[in-house]
Amino acid sequence: MNPESLKQLLENLQQGKVSVDEGLQILRRLPFEDLGFAKLDSHRAIRCGTPEVIFCQSKTPDQVLRIAKRIVSGGSNLLATRATPEHFSAVQNGLPEARHHEVARIISLVQREVPKAKGNIGVVTAGTADIPVAEEARVTAEVLGNPVTVFYDVGIYNFVALSFRVNLNVYHMVFVGRNYLWHTL
Predict the structure, then answer these.
(1) Domain ranges of the chain
(2) How far apart are CA 147 and CA 14, in angstroms?
(3) CA 51 to CA 4: how far, in whole Å?
(4) How far is Cα 134 from Cα 101, in angstroms, rounded to an integer?
């Protein structure tokens, strides 16, 4: 559930379009919904402004699909990280609008526009081996409403050279090197 869907529920209650019992049934899922194998933080979008993100690693494709369906049915955008092709296949069968960002290992489904964040994020990699982690950072930031510029394969020692070519002061920076993620915001 996100602020817009909560507001809509309250308006529907006020207008008599939803009964009090139906409203209670919907609100029972707040703040957490127990799916048996996972507890979905269905209140996170209201508290933090962004819905829960699914970390797919160590979850079965069916578990990822079940969580994804609950997130989307609550009106929130979907962001699932460390997704395998098998995870995406399951999610796509249940949510055909979902998109797979293969290099980033992310599944996303944007059903409502996210307000654009202030500022820009620069994602910098030392080498090409770091691109998957950098893509994960880029796609995540973009789905959450942040404009991103990427600088790939600048070399571990060429960051200074990059700073002579590009005004890096206009970016909140994310540095990716040796498959690790560092950030300075």
Answers:
(1) 3-109, 120-184
(2) 38
(3) 12
(4) 12
